[in-house]
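User: Please predict the structure of the protein below. I'd like the answer in structure-token form so I can feed it into my own downstream comparison script.

Assistant: Understood. Taking the following sequence of 817 residues as input:
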Amino acid sequence: MKNLYFTVFFCFIFATSKAQSIPSPSEFLGYELGTQFTRHHQVVAYFEAVAAASDQVNISSYGKTYEGRTLQIASISSAKNLNNINEIRENHLINSGLKKGTPSSLAPVSVVWLSYNVHGNEAVSTEAALKTIYTLVTEKSEWLENLIVLMDPCINPDGRDRYVNWYNQVKSTPFDSNPIANEHYEEWPTGRTNHYYFDLNRDWAWVSQRETQQRLKVYHQWYPQVHVDFHEQGVNSPYYFAPAAEPLHEIVTDFQRDFQNTIGKNHASYFDKEGWSYFTKEVYDLLYPGYGDTYPMFHGAIGMTYEQGGSGRAGLSIKNEIGDYLTLKDRIDHHYTTGLSTIETVHKNSELLNSEFKKYFTPGKVKYANYVIDGDPKKIASLTSLLDTHHIPYSSPKTNMSVKGWNYDKQKNSTTSITKKAIVIDGKSQKNRLIQALFEPNTKIGDSVTYDITSWSLPYAYGLKAIATQEKLKNTIPYAKANKVNNTESKAYAYASPWKSFQDGKFLAALLKQNIRVRYNGKPIKNKEGKWTEGSLFILKGENKALKDFDATIKKIADNTNQKITPIASGFSEKGIDLGSNEMNFISKKKVGLIKSNNASPQGYGEVWHFFEQQLKYPITQIDLDRLNDRNLDKFDILILPPGYYRNITDSESELIKWIRKGGRIIVLGSAVNSFADSDSFDLESKSNLKENKNRNIPFSEIERNDISSAIYGSIYKVNIDNSHPLAFGYDQQYYSLKNSEKSYSLLDNTTIGRLPKNAKPVAGFSGSEATKLQSESLIFGIEYKGRGSVVYLVDNPLYRAFWENGKLWMVNAIFH
């Protein structure tokens, strides 16, 4: 008994000494936490210091940002658990049904993931992370016996440092709480977004950004049972925590709803003691799948957003509307409290969470048994790449067959022929809820007042044929991915390549970067090698004499871009034009500029920037609108005006309009189109709102809901296309467009390439009744000629959030065709 006493006493003394050796954030940083913002490299260093001093913390880097900053995650648990962490992780996946096998004898634990600072200028959450990890390992170790806590202290380091550096440069000493002071008004583009100005909290499902791509690899190693995304909102708002607002996606389970309520009540008990204001069940819903709360929710977790008042306006201190001072220290305390409260609740309910998590991944009743996707193999390959990222399994039909089910294009049940190159997604697999969220034809919306877009169905986004079946498809086999292209060596008169997808655009961009001369056919061609629809690419040996080894060079570029090319033996065609025809249009290498302005949407600007640098991989020059004089403009063939709201840009005597008249082309995206409407310089006309004085005689309490009748929240419309026009080469006569605005425009004479039909209605998503009326016979894609130049109108931005894959060819055509 005496020996046992000394053993326990020694362990207590040892644990106490270890805790005492762990530096607090203030001790490590050299300033009191909350008196200044901590730069990202200091955050990385502190987490590493805690791990070095504690046997309860492991630190690992899961990647780098675009600007080279470290992405870091901390695994926090008891020393015993960390010594067996890989075995615990395997057991967790096996017990959940996400991995086959037999778990070991180790007791199950629950997994909590805390994500901080996804929006860079919502900077308090990273400061709270510093305080939370310190308290967790020094004061709350008993909670860690049945938990693995994963902490990502900063999801968006590039945005955070952009904000912190700006704030430190402009703030008064020590700070100015006056809300009109400069330190409370960030400069464009603000620190909210990442390097390419993408909102990482909208990217979980689409995985377009490097930070998301690397983070999800770790997420799918763990599948936490609880995931919290820490945010900030307006300065005058109280604290928000779950339960979430309506609409909740219909796949959210009763248990997930109930446990959000359990966690919320625990938070409320702490906030009530302090007299802190808070609200629940308002504003922040669970519908759109790209959030840091919904994406985990659709993976069985209790996904939650916590919102502290402040954001980029608050700085170190700001006086709010009731005359109180909101300080960084206050904001830290609130996030710190909900973080610890979350961990405490999970600790107390670990067994229940483990049991319910397993139920979530047990296949049950589903809306559709299979989703069958068919179409262009390159588009299929692009989709399967996304499915692989989300660990969604798929197979193939054994043969060509007919399938009965909901036809996405016809918007009704029908029998449809599919090829054996299609993919079949099992709607009853462990991922059935995520699959339903991403693939169902039309999301059920319980409340039309929502926080984001309301439709995103991937078959429409990828331009693929889809059928959702009630009965499970038989005779499927494992999907055989195509081998990487390795074109055969040959000696050819020319090489041809089809023009059907964005992948073909990447090939063209690679050719032009190497100064290779390329043409496209303005009329169909049939030769012994095949049939070539308009827009197909032709590389003629006789026009590329400067290449030392023509055949080997073209093969190398094609192989590097995974593009199948066809050697053409003769310029003589069996039908249609010959390869020497005047209808074989030369594609010149274009010098492209992206117009930068404080009036641009940062996200819209970043979508173009990212598209060129990371997707198309074609050079683009960023140039400020104020520097567009006659000398600079002459250096560009194409200018792109990103979404935004611009004044006086169409003034008839402006340098930009003169450049267009001389032969320049400007591509105008999304909301920027409105700056060209109803001006003296252009023919484009906006359509007037059909419902004036819409709030007359409406009770005040109903005004917000009445306003949505004139709004569109990301709905999908079917567009009629003139695919004989070069702007539409590669498209069918119908195209599905994601519409994010109620703005509409009258058709152009003879140069309307994409239009909505009369009385058009969305095929998916919410579109208010008055907004829907405005869409009837409205312009979606068109060109207006001015002198020797032109303006290309892309009313629905096809680069939106980089996930509308089938829209990207519009941009390539606008540049090169």
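That's the full token string. The chain has four domains: 2-360, 370-478, 494-587, 592-816.
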